[in-house]
Amino acid sequence: MSFFLFPEVPPRVEYELTPMGASMLPALEGFTSWIRDHWPSIREARASYGALHDAPGSSGNGQTTEVQASQ
Questions:
Q1: What's the average pLDDT block by block, 10 residues per block, for the chain (71 residues)?
Q2: Does residue 10 fall inside a structural domain?
Q3: Domain residues for 48?
Q4: Would you say 51 and 43 are in contact if contact means Cβ atoms under 8 Å apart?
């Protein structure tokens, strides 16, 4: 990631992927495609695990809820 800071008021910054960062895009596209293709199974597995193990933060329906950490 590279960025360009423009000495303006208000300040303006533009970000751009470097060639190395851009080289990661094919791998990330494959990963996000896999997630999209398998999302129903992922949600089902999360809900099943939460129901079986009473996992903190799981409502048993594949959704997460906020859990406050004890101090």
A1: 88 92 94 95 90 64 52 44
A2: no
A3: 23-55
A4: no
